[in-house]
Amino acid sequence: MDLQQYLPVILFILVGVAVGVAPQVLGFVFGPNRPDPEKNSPYECGFEAFEDARMKFDVRYYLVAILFI
Asked: What is the DSSP string of 30-62?
């Protein structure tokens, strides 16, 4: 079995991964980093949050959600 036959496949996979990863890495490295408390706050349709955004849901809700998947 000659490994030269797999060279185009490996090259195709490497180019595909590079095309997918390179923009993300470049955006992370060169993108602006301006943290702001307003950007990190949960959005509630323009209103202040009524309660904690990380409230617990009933387990039955997840079971119904799984039925739709």
From this structure: HS-----HHHHSPPBTTBPPSS-TTPPPPHHHH
Answer yes or no: is pLDDT of 28 > 90: yes
- pLDDT tens-digit map of 35-69: 888 777 777 676 666 666 677 777 888 888 888 88
Residues 49/42, Cβ–Cβ less than 8 Å: yes
9, 16 Cβ separation under 8 angstroms: no
DSSP 8-class letter at 2: -
DSSP secondary-structure letter at 69?
-
Tokens of 35: 């943290």
Q: Which residues pair with 44 in a beta bridge?
A: 47
Long-range contacts of 4-10 (CB under 8 A, 24+ apart): none
